Amino acid sequence: MKVRLSLFSAIELEGHLLVTGPTGSGKTNTVKVILEEISSKLPVLVLDYHGEYNLGRVLTPGINLRFSMFSDNSDPEFIVDVLGTLFQLTEPQWYIILRSVRKLGPGITLKKLVEAVEEEPANDWRTYEIKQAVLRRLAILSEGLLGEVLNGVESPEFLFEEVVTVNLSVLPPRYRSFLALIIMKHLYDHACRRGESKRIVHVTVLEEAWNVLLPRARWEPPSVGERLFLELRKFGELVIAVSQRVDDISERSTRNCAAIIMHQPSEIELERLGCRVDQGRLGKLQRRGTALVVKTGCSLREVRVRKAKS
Predict the structure, then answer these.
(1) 76-87 and 91-104 are packed helices; what angle lies between their axes, rounded to 10 degrees?
(2) What angle do helix axes 110-118 and 91-104 make, rounded to 10 degrees?
(3) Are the C-beta atoms of residues 253 and 230 closer than 8 Å to each other?
(4) Over the stretch 66-103, which tens digit does the pLDDT of each residue have?
(5) Is the predicted pLDDT of residue 310 greater than 70, yes or no?
(6) What sequence ranges are listed for the domain Helicase HerA central (predicted)?
(7) For strand 299-304 and strand 290-295, is the pairing parallel, antiparallel, or unpaired?
(8) Whole-number Å distance between alpha carbons of 109 and 112
(9) Cα separation of 241 and 32, whole Å?
(10) Which of 94, 156, 262, 293 could form a disulfide with 10 if both were Cys (CB 3.0 to 4.6 A apart)?
């Protein structure tokens, strides 16, 4: 499962890729250069948090992006878990949404889900309060920009069949991550239907990855985003995760990356990966346009990155 990059002889994309660096270090430019090389060979999806990309077909919430939040083969519990991540649902709130989703069956929209929750019986004051709390949260999604996106009826398959940029910058930061998770869940469903693959067949760029691949203690369960990230690899999906620091995302997500491209790395970051670099070499890596490629076993190689065309 490899894609060779002529501009980066140090890299063979044979698994997920992590690109790190502080603001202004050139990490977005590096991702753009990678995409310039592979977008002519493979379909690409860019989940663009800050409106920095203009690759392929650009879709923007509220303008030209609309699809159904629920696919016919979606696992109801998975979707409810995504809602739970966004709203920090209590167990009773989580359960009332799950029960409503199960009653609706195929062809669910956010609007129908709100109606189903409204019809849930409330036999006492406590249940009534739980139901109202759920409705207040769902209304945030159903009535705003997200509602315009997620109340569609079309499957989002069109996002995964060509080169597409989804401009998330028009949404409040909290809801950018939610929409990114929903799209990644649909991507996972699409990949499952496609079947497992030993070669890369699709590329996804996940900007601000720490909002999806949430850092956690080793004894804590993985987040919804981490579970998707780990599973997608076996279906021939290459995810390029972009983050400011290595430890901004979960340790398990980092370990499942075939390579890490670090911009202006710190000694502490390298030590966390089990790698050591002398101070002289580390100083040279602080220059913009230079990056350090870290592969399994602390194989290190410096690369120069040209300026992207756009």
Answers:
(1) 140
(2) 110
(3) yes
(4) 998 876 656 777 778 888 877 888 999 999 998 888 88
(5) yes
(6) 14-142
(7) antiparallel
(8) 5
(9) 13
(10) 293
